[in-house]
Design goal:
single chain, 499 residues, alpha+beta
Length: 499
């Protein structure tokens, strides 16, 4: 029965791809989308394999596994009380006692207060809703999420094919099967629906289509990016302000970017928001460094954790989800929010038992980052480091696993494409397209700064940098003079043949 459900869903989506291709994507053969989505499903199965067998020992693990398991917990609430299920689904009851009644076993849902809101809950909600039609088959969830991101790439293609001279089949393949983009968008975590939202937003803002067609794309794109990666939406709104105002100031776009940067920094300094942003970024960075280096998160009170550095874990006896203090140890008192506000302290009650919230091991893909320590100027000084980490990690080393090499070679490919696009074969663009390119590059820069500032783990960088890669792919499509490049390469090939 399970195999039949998977086969039926697969055939249904492949037929849907064929129908969309035949009706709306007439610049490529009718079977193109079907073939591309078949390859996208292969990415989904590869993702499932990696996080089930490479990392999970036979069980789906990491965020994908946690989201799916917690969605089952939420889904089962429906059979106890449909009313309570919909209270969870629409976020109508945030009472801790109500949450603990049904979802006390969860960590992503029941993870405490966050800076904006808990976007992990939206992934759980989506999967819980899909369970009504998928029969609990996790592969079907992967296929549905993969299709969501895939169709977003197809929609963006409809705009870029008017701006690019790259052959449509190649351009469509770039937007749907670029390795890192295809891998992370073929999962059942936040990325697929965020990517769909970003694709829709980009087309809705920049394409010259009718107002109704632009409006629904902007609205849906806004909701999806807000719901699954709020910081991506924040970056997009900031660059949209640049696009609608500053990008018109000068013909030379580097002057508009410089003016916008000076203006933005001045506003942050004059309003005092520079210190607040530095505080938020620094705490995110410090928390991720703790995750990178491993350690213990112990339950404190309702509002706090105790954090113990990985090197000090031997001060405890760990068993059955509890940690018994064997000797006094330094710790941090962490507030349960997105910033993990922390205060140094010491645990001295030898023999006391603490419930373990998280027990993390050191990661094998460490990336060194310069601590910001709530300093706005240090944050600005870290920008070059952020770009290097965001666009060149992972850099293989002795501890690297085979999974890091595809991303490493993909970064090299992007670097080569950048040289071809901006140095060797750039297209001459009109002023409107120059404004679009500078806006997308600014968006990629903002994403890269945030990721580089806060993420000291190369495996996470590869995932979080995806929104920037989407913008870069669009820029490459617009700016690269593919016809001129192929003409020159073909001439050189003929000369070599004659010789």
């Amino acid at each position: 029965m399970a195999a039949l459900i998977i086969i039926l869903y697969t055939l249904a989506f492949l037929f849907l791809c064929y129908w969309i291709n035949k009706k709306f994507i007439k610049v490529v053969p009718n079977y193109t989308l079907t073939i591309l989505f078949s390859l996208k499903i292969a990415y989904a199965l590869f993702f499932l394999y990696v996080y089930t067998y490479h990392y999970g020992g036979g069980e789906l693990t990491a965020d994908a596994g946690a989201f799916f398991k917690e969605s089952i917990v939420l889904h089962n609430v429906f059979y106890e009380s449909p009313y309570d299920f919909f209270q969870f689904f629409f976020g109508l009851n945030e009472n801790p006692e109500f949450i603990d009644k049904y979802l006390s076993s969860t960590t992503h849902w029941n993870g405490g207060k966050t800076l904006l809101f808990n976007d992990s809950r939206n992934v759980i909600r989506t999967n819980a809703l899909l369970l009504f039609i998928t029969g609990g088959q996790v592969i079907v969830h992967f296929i549905i999420f993969s299709f969501a991101s895939f169709i977003g790439g197809v929609d963006l293609f409809q705009w870029l094919k008017k701006k690019s001279n790259i052959p449509p089949p190649i351009l469509l393949s770039m937007l749907t099967l670029a390795p890192s983009l295809a891998f992370w968008s073929s999962s059942l975590i936040k990325e697929p629906l965020m990517i769909l939202g970003l694709f829709l937003l980009i087309r809705g803002v920049f394409d010259t289509i009718s107002i109704p067609r632009r409006t629904w794309r902007i609205l849906v794109g806004f909701i999806l990016t807000l719901g699954f990666k709020p910081y991506v939406l924040i970056c997009f709104v900031i660059v949209l302000i640049f696009y609608l105002s500053f990008s018109k100031l000068f013909k030379r776009q580097w002057l508009t970017l410089l003016t916008f940067s000076i203006f933005g920094i001045s506003v942050l300094l004059s309003t005092g928001y520079s210190d607040k942003i530095a505080y938020i970024i620094a705490n995110q960075q410090e928390d991720f460094i703790n995750l990178r280096d491993g350690g213990l998160y112990l339950q404190g009170d309702d509002e706090h954790y105790y954090y113990i550095y990985y090197a000090n874990r031997d001060h405890f006896k760990l068993e059955n989800g509890n940690a018994v203090l064997l000797e006094p140890v330094g710790a941090h008192y962490l507030k349960k929010n997105e910033n993990f506000e922390r205060f140094p302290m010491k645990l001295e009650e030898v023999g006391r038992t603490y419930k373990i919230h998280l027990h993390l091991h050191e990661t094998s893909s460490k990336v060194e980052v310069t601590p910001i320590r709530d300093n706005f100027w240090q944050m600005l000084l870290n920008i070059p480091e952020s770009f290097i980490n965001s666009f060149f990690q992972p850099i293989p080393n002795k501890q690297s696993t085979w999974l890091q090499y595809p991303a490493f070679f993909e970064n090299i490919l992007f670097a080569i494409l950048a040289v071809l696009t901006f140095i060797l074969f750039p297209r001459k663009l009109n002023q409107s397209d120059k404004r679009i390119v500078s806006t997308l590059l600014l968006f990629a820069a903002f994403i890269a700064m945030i990721v580089g500032w806060t993420t000291p783990v190369s495996g996470a960088i590869v995932r979080y940098i995806i929104p920037a890669y989407i913008a870069i792919l669009a820029v490459l499509a617009i700016k690269l003079d593919y016809k001129k490049m192929m003409l020159i390469f073909s001439k050189k090939g003929r000369k070599k043949t004659k010789v």
